[in-house]
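Sequence in, structure out. Go.
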Amino acid sequence: VVVDSIRHPAEVEVFRAHGNFILVGVDADQEIRFERCKIRGREGDPHEFAAFQALEARELEGEDSSLPQLIKTFGMADHVVVNNAGFDEVRAQVNEVLKKVQL
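Output:
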């Protein structure tokens, strides 16, 4: 099973409690994430880079425990994939992770 958008350490803890869970952190440069956000065009997404940065800043730290805490969550990752390039590059990284965990 693949679950995306795990954004809080408590979510990781729930999955880990059920055993056989591997957290793969996927990251990309902020400018690339913003460009992809604009292409996605989801309602409510920021249209200006400064607004995008402000939104991400709130989600990174999550001072209120009910908010996303991306830095802490990402720090819990068993493996990291950097998604700055194209599909072939990210697929190769994912395949390497799968080899390591023998899936």
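Check: The helical segments are 9-17, 30-40, 49-61, 70-75, 87-101. The mean pLDDT is 92.
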